[in-house]
Amino acid sequence: MSTVEQVKRRFGAGTVPLLTKRLRQALSVVLFFALWAVLVRLEVLGFGRFVGPVPALSTFVSALLGAPMTGSGATIYQHAAFSAMRVVVAMVLATATAIPLGLLIGANRRWEDALFPALEVFRPVPPVAWVPIALLLLPTFRSGVLFVVFVGAFFPILVNTIEGVDTVDEEYLRAAESLGADSREVFRHVIFPATLPSIVTGVSTGVGLAWITVVAAEMIAGGIGIGYIIFQAYRLLQTDVVAVGMIAIGVLGYASAALVYRIGNRLTEWQTID
Amino acid sequence: MSNQTQTTREPTMEGEPTPEKTGAIDIENLTKVYDPEGERVVAVDDMDLQIGAEEFVALLGPSGCGKSTVMNCIAGYLEPTEGEVLVDGNRVSGPDPKRGVVFQDNRLFPWKTIQENVEFGPQMNDGVEEGRARSILDEMGLDGFEDAYPSGLSGGMQQRAELARLLANDPDIMLMDEPFSALDALTKEIMQKKLIEVWERDNRTVLFITHDVEEAILLADRVVVMTARPGQVKDVIDVDLDRPRDPEVVTTDRFTELRERALSVIREEAQRALEQEEGEV
């Protein structure tokens, strides 16, 4: 037995793990709550003003049972549904516009010259910075929030799509042409599938940004939604509700990232097979 | 698609006379200059070469001598700066399924299964014939891998699959750019044998680019040795070894003679290429 194997065995990293994977994952959650409790109990920084994990969890449970949140009267499900709906609609609009536009810009130099420089100027502007102009230009606050979330998701998808097209190996195009493909067939059978992994990356990044943006926008102008209740609760010093809102965002963000990951893997199955 | 006019060149292989041989390549005063406005890199300079229909020609030369440029002009990927390439009397103006290409590191489409890759050409042209891909894959020893993705195959199998994809399209001409250079010695030998088998049966023209002198002599009817950049034809060696050639042919005196002849030309050119590079630095 080699030294490495001995060391591994001693520390349980070999065939007989110290803890199962699930247990270790559960441990990380437990440790997190323990740290939270300790910080609150010892009043580190401003933690003395914040709720501890036990009352937060109890508020969480009653929220899950349908108790209305803050003064709005709406349940956590209604708030979550509004935020999720904004993310879904914005994602649908962003993918439907950014992917075709990215393919067009990437595949055609003339379109790139005509469109990309203007887009490039807007790209570094943080989505939240669009809030004032969105509220001014759009008829309702709700459409303003939706627009800002759309902007957040749009650019990562666009940029990744363009880059995906740009990095398609030219010899694939040549191979397809020599096999008899015309330019439409080259696009369909080579450029698009070759770009798909980049598009998936863009959509994953986009959905993450959409959640960040929706919370920020709702804090400013939501009227309803998880971002709205987090900020309302903060104003009312209901720190347990703040914590519940954060947990809800974490769960929803994680679930949507996992969904995009699954769909992406399915679409680019050829990549992962060894 | 195959209404090419017959060219005058005598076939170098004996065999049943086919009514109309296709796949003759005529390179006339081919010059290719990269970046003509700026640095002007002359890759190929006024090159002439005739390749007969159904002939197997190896293009041999030091690296950077413009071998691939010549091939890319025949494939239709590059526009010659001057001169032209004729295939069966018609000027090459772009890629064509009658001129199939095998790339150095294969360019199987990773997002398509092996069968989909092999059926790609027919799908783009006359339509897919049921069972044909399977029989070609069987012949290439790839039965059972129809539904695998290229990433699931070894390098040698990928190269066989690329050859299968080409054959499914039934090209007159096979352009092969150092197709076996990345393979281990044993796989390489198997692939060489397979290629010769396919070529002898199907009456196709093969232009085979390599920097391996023994490989060139072992496979080709004629070995065309190119000069260092700018590329031109330095020497044409008729390989008069009987076919089929088994691997032991490399031990014969005639093989050694041919190899020495090719090597001496190559050495001279490699030396010249080196001095050129040093001059440029």
UniProtKB/TrEMBL annotation, chain A:
One of its GO terms (biological process) is transmembrane transport. Keywords: Cell membrane, Membrane, Transmembrane, Transmembrane helix, Transport. Residues 80-260 form the ABC transmembrane type-1 domain. The keyword Transport applies. One of its GO terms (cellular component) is plasma membrane. It is a multi-pass membrane protein. It is found in: Cell membrane. The chain crosses the membrane at residues 26-44, 56-77, 84-107, 127-155, 209-231, 243-261. It comes from the Archaea. PANTHER family: ABC TRANSPORTER PERMEASE PROTEIN MJ0413-RELATED, ALKANE SULFONATE ABC TRANSPORTER-RELATED, MEMBRANE SUBUNIT. Belongs to the binding-protein-dependent transport system permease family. This is Taurine transporter subunit. It comes from Halalkalicoccus paucihalophilus.
From TrEMBL, chain B:
GO terms for molecular function: ATP binding; ATP hydrolysis activity. Residues 25-253 form the ABC transporter domain. Residues 1-24 are annotated as: Disordered. Gene3D superfamilies: P-loop containing nucleotide triphosphate hydrolases (3.40.50.300). Keywords: ATP-binding, Nucleotide-binding, Transport. The keyword Hydrolase does not apply. PROSITE patterns: ABC_TRANSPORTER_1, ABC_TRANSPORTER_2. It comes from the Archaea. InterPro entries: AAA+_ATPase (IPR003593), ABC_transporter-like_ATP-bd (IPR003439), ABC_transporter-like_CS (IPR017871), ABC_transporter_ATP-bind (IPR050166), P-loop_NTPase (IPR027417). Residues 1-10 have a biased composition (Polar residues). PANTHER family: ALIPHATIC SULFONATES IMPORT ATP-BINDING PROTEIN SSUB (PTHR42788:SF13), TAURINE IMPORT ATP-BINDING PROTEIN-RELATED (PTHR42788). This is Putative ABC transporter ATP-binding protein.
